[in-house]
């Protein structure tokens, strides 16, 4: 691990100057760069968790219909992605579509199939 002392103007620190210390990690990145990366990754996980909590809230509300849950889920998905401003969503269940207002088919996309079984008492 190497430490470089940097003066307030970004140059090499002089005696008596206030000093910022930048420590290089083994991979050659600074601690600050590593922290920025980890912070970014944590913000992405928070968006994903917010989506899951939102879906949970839809499901837990007794008066919410299945159609409202599916539409709400489609609307919650784009904000949870890395680039929500260019993300749209669509859920297809038994041929019925639930899509975000900005949905359009493009060359880019992520498709996933989900299978579940509903058991009724």
Going across the biggest sheet, name each strand in turn: 1-2
Percent strand equals 5-15%
* Average of the residue pLDDT scores: 82
Structural class: alpha+beta
Number of domains: 1
Which percent range fits the helix content? 25-40%
Distance N to C terminus: 63 Å
Uncertain parts: none
How many beta-strand runs?
4
Looking at the structure, what is the overall shape? elongated
Rg, Å, rounded: 24 Å
Per DSSP, the total helix count is 2
The SSE string, one letter per element, is EEHHEE
Largest sheet: 2 strands, antiparallel
Report on this structure.
This protein is α+β, with helices and mostly antiparallel strands. The chain has one domain (2-6, 17-99). Helices cover 34% and strands 15% of the residues. It has 2 helices and 4 strands, in the order E-E-H-H-E-E. Strands 1-2 form a two-stranded antiparallel sheet. It has a two-stranded antiparallel sheet with strand order 3-4. A hairpin with a 2-residue loop joins strand 3 and strand 4.
């Amino acid at each position: 691990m190497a430490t470089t002392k940097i003066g307030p103007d970004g140059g090499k620190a002089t005696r008596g100057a206030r000093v910022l210390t930048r420590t290089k990690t083994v991979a050659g990145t600074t601690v600050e760069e590593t922290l920025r990366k980890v912070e970014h990754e944590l913000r992405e996980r928070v968006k994903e968790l917010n989506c899951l909590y939102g879906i949970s809230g839809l499901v837990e509300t007794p008066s919410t219909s299945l159609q409202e849950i599916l539409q709400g889920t489609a609307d919650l998905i784009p904000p949870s992605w890395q680039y929500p401003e260019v993300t749209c969503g669509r859920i297809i269940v038994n041929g019925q579509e639930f899509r975000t207002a900005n949905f359009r088919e493009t060359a880019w996309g992520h498709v996933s199939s989900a299978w579940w079984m509903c058991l009724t008492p």
